[in-house]
Amino acid sequence: MKLAIGNDHVAIEMKNEIKEYLEGKGIEIVDMGTNTPGSFHYPISGYKVAKLVASGEVDGGILICGTGVGISLAANKVKGIRACVCSEPYTARLSKQHNNTNIIAFGARVIGIELAKMIVDEWINAEFQGGRHATRVDMIMEIEDTQHLQAAEN
Ligand code: RB5
Questions:
Q1: How far apart are CA 93 and CA 121, in angstroms?
Q2: Looking at the annotation, which residues are catalytic?
Q3: CATH number for 49
Q4: Whose CA is nearest to atom 5 of ligand 1?
Q5: How many other C-beta atoms are found inside a 10 Å radius of the C-beta of residue 30?
Q6: Which residues are near ligand 1 (CB < 6 Å)?
Q7: pLDDT tens across 71-124, in order?
Q8: How far away, in angstroms, is 64 Cα from ligand 1 center?
């Protein structure tokens, strides 16, 4: 498995710990930064990770900023991305099983490193369940593709 990871200045330490943790499990990590202390605009790393995920060059992405919000909002603007912020493992697992998220995000100012590891583990180990969930995810992508949702007309 190969994952991309990105962060802002608030989350360098947590990013490095998560990276080391996942590499220890044999997962290849592509680090899109930032690794430089000093104020950093999170849309840059959110965008870089999202592009790698959307192109299929990696199997998924992990994004960390202060809250996880800004960096996931940026990632979600890239076509094909389904990123969500999680502060606990249950939502992380269900976001993959039901919503087929391809990026997980969290906040270095919100959760601690052990919870972050649990969230990442749940997300990585979960599988999209398809079926009725696929219908709904397809509807989300229809909105993205067309700025319209046919089912909402009925
Ligand atoms: C940086 O101060 C902070 O705004 C950022 O890390 C993130 O929380 C934004 O959503």
A1: 9
A2: 65, 98
A3: 3.40.1400.10
A4: 66
A5: 16
A6: 8, 10, 42, 65-67, 69-70
A7: 999 999 999 999 999 999 999 999 999 999 999 999 999 999 999 999 999 999
A8: 9
pTM assigned to the model: 0.97
Q: Quote the pLDDT of residue 153.
A: 95
Q: Ligand 1 centroid vs 82 CA: distance in angstroms?
A: 20
Structural domain span for residue 32: 2-153
Residue nearest to atom 2 of ligand 1 (CA): 66
Number of domains composing the chain:
1
Q: How far is the CA of 65 from the centre of ligand 1 (A)?
A: 6
Distance CA 42, CA 52 (A): 16
From 116, 5, 118, 134, select the one nearest 59 (Cα to Cα): 5
Summarize pLDDT for 21-38 with one digit per residue, the tens. Answer: 999 999 999 999 999 999
Residue 45: which of 35, 55, 54, 37 has the closest Cα? 35
